[in-house]
Each structure stands twice: as structure tokens, then as C-alpha cells.
Amino acid sequence: MRDLKNKHVFVSCEVSNSGYKFARTLSCMPCIYWPQSDDNGKNPWNVSQKNKSNKHYFTNYTDDYKLPPTFDVVKKFFKNEKEYYTTIFDSKFKESATQVIENGQRVIYVTNNMPDKLVDFFPNSVIFNLIENEKDVATNIFNYKTLNQYSIPHEELLPKDNDYYLFLKYLVDNNDNLSHADVWAYENKKKPWQDKYSNQYLKHINNKVSSNMFYRKTIDNNRTLNVTSKTSWPNVKDFFEGLLNES
With a threshold of 0.85, does the pTM exceed it? Predict the structure, then answer.
């Protein structure tokens, strides 16, 4: 953003294995910083041995480096997207990414934010918009949400008087092994997750993914490459290097 305008690469996608796999492959380029850690792997091609639901998953932080998240991760805790980026994201990014910026490298984010929103706040970024099979994505999301433990994202950045934060904090403190599906159940059923909710929850996910994927197919701007399973890596490389050469 602004003075950091050329330091961001985004893989915009639904919650799926494909987004992180694509981002790991991009991160093999020397111009992209790789957040090396035991969980992420020493290199992008060293897939995670700890994440059982998505071996390609990685975080944007290590022991001494933690980037702030894009707005989709914290949108329920902040009312204003512009205010979040200008007052919190910018300062935390500068604070965390000093070494990366000095090295001239770029930081990669895997995000659920839509490309047009990203362009609004990061007008000189490079964006890859993943268009995937809707049913496969919905199944991946359902499995992830029902099998993985929930934790409050980037708690150190969140306003502690926010109602949704207080709600989640109560759930986390009073439920062992709280899952993402449990959070959905408490929000919609006022009780913990039960298997009988599966059809309703999967339908909810399917509807959201279908709507999002329809919208993704309409994206058309010169900072974004729409990527499908048929997109060749030479095309990805040409698009990426073309935008970097403009910077």
C-alpha cells in the first residue's frame, strides 16, 4: 500500500488446498520471501508434516516475523476496511517486514479477499485469482471446518471490547477442542456441533462457494490473472514478470 505498493503478491481463492499449493510454487521464485519455519518448511517445496488436512498450508510468520492478515481474516472484528488497512495493517507490515523490504523481496498472501477489493487497497500488487471446481472446494471446506480445532485469529491485533471477540473468547475458554464447525453451530443453533447439522452446513458452504466462484469468473483487471487447472505455468510466469518489470 502507498509506500509499500510493490511488495505484495496475492493468491485470491476460496478455502482450499489449491491456493496454498499454488502459492508455494510461486514462492520458489527468488523475488518472493519464504517464511521459513518448522511448520512451513525450510523451503517452499518442503510441505508441512504437521498439518494433516492440508500439507501445503503455511503461515506468514516465523519466530521473529509475523505479518498482519488481510481484512477477510479479521472482518468480524473491525467495522471499517479502509481504517483497518491504514491504521493497523500498514504499521504492522512495516514493523514485521523490514528485512524483507530491505532485501527487495515481495511478500505472498493466500487470501479469501476478492481481487477487486485487493486492487482497491493494493493497486500495484500482483494478484492470482483461482477459479476451481465448486463441489471439490465445498467438500474441502466442510472437511477442514469439521476436523480442525478453532483458534481466534491474530488475537493480538483485535479490539478486546468487540462483541464477536468476546463471544469467541467465551467459546474457546469453555470448550475443549472447539472446532470451526462448533463455532458455526453456536452462531446458528446456539449449541455445539452435531452430525445431524452436516447437510445444512454443507448446503450453506456450497451456496457461498457457488456465489463466490460465479463472481470470480467475472474478474477482469490488468493486475489480476484468472487461474484455472488448465492455466500453464509459463503463462503465470510471463504475467508475473511482466507486472514486476512495470514496477
Answer: yes
